[in-house]
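Renewal narrative, Specific Aim 1. Our central claim is that a sequence can be written position by position from structural information alone. The example that follows is taken directly from our test logs and has not been curated for this report. It begins with the structure tokens describing the chain, in the order in which they were read.
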């Protein structure tokens, strides 16, 4: 399984840091030149982005980010491997990642479309069924939206499907993959690795640290998020939140913040 690193031509230092870490764990990788959204013309954006009436249009940077991920999906589809791993270039990669980013992909469930290997600082709902992996890692199906596309594994069949369905797109790439309200996420089997193998530097290092690399690919819009409870009146929002929690509880889902594997105490338990 090869890793594909999305990297802007104007950010060679980021690529070098990613290359150093991946070389240190013996992972095969390929640089994928990112599409710089700031350089896209209005015509180029309108060819691929269809804004939704009443919703914020994607920023040029978000369009470029989406096109960059599509370039990775194209490489996965045209390559010889059943799976490919995609990283954005502001990610930290755990020291324990080697067994999962090499030739042996037998640990990946046969029904997996996507495996999210990124930690984000929010709690998510996960399925009650948890599979054990080498080194005390685990896998569980994602049962709620989890933002972020900084690190994930994609099957070749799913990459082909995503390419066919996103020749024209309306939402940011992480919403299309992981938000059932916006894309095809409801029909995908998306797993979360626990703890995660990667994390954005801005989520890992203390605020103000010189080690933080802000995302270079995207200046975010207000994403279209059908069913967003925060847009509801207070009472309606509280009732719907309670009903959603009850639905997850009845399905025996569990909620947790997924930690980064290199963090102290990262091998989290159900919370």
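The sequence written for that structure reads:
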């Amino acid at each position: 399984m090869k890793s594909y690193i999305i990297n802007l031509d104007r950010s060679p230092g980021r690529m070098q840091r990613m290359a150093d870490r991946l070389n240190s764990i013996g992972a095969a990788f390929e640089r994928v030149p990112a599409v710089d959204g700031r350089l896209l013309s209005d015509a180029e954006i309108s060819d691929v982005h269809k804004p939704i009436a009443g919703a914020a249009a994607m920023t040029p940077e978000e369009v470029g980010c989406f096109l960059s991920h599509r370039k990775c999906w194209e490489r996965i589809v045209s390559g010889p491997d059943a799976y490919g791993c995609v990283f954005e270039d502001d990610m930290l990669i755990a020291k324990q990642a080697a067994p999962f980013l090499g030739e042996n992909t037998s640990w990946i469930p046969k029904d997996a479309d996507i495996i999210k290997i990124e930690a984000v600082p929010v709690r998510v709902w996960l399925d009650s069924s948890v599979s054990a992996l080498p080194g005390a890692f685990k896998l569980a199906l994602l049962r709620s939206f989890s933002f972020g596309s900084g690190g994930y594994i994609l099957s070749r069949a799913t990459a082909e499907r995503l390419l066919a369905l996103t020749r024209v797109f309306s939402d940011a790439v992480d919403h299309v993959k992981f938000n059932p309200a916006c894309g095809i996420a409801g029909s995908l089997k998306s797993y979360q690795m626990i703890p995660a193998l990667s994390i954005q530097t801005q989520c890992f290092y203390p605020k103000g640290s010189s080690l933080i690399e802000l995302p270079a690919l995207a200046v975010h819009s207000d994403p279209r998020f059908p069913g967003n409870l925060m847009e509801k009146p207070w009472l309606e929002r509280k009732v719907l939140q309670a009903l959603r929690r009850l639905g997850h509880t009845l399905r025996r889902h569990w909620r947790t913040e997924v930690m980064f594997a290199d963090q102290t105490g990262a091998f989290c338990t159900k919370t």
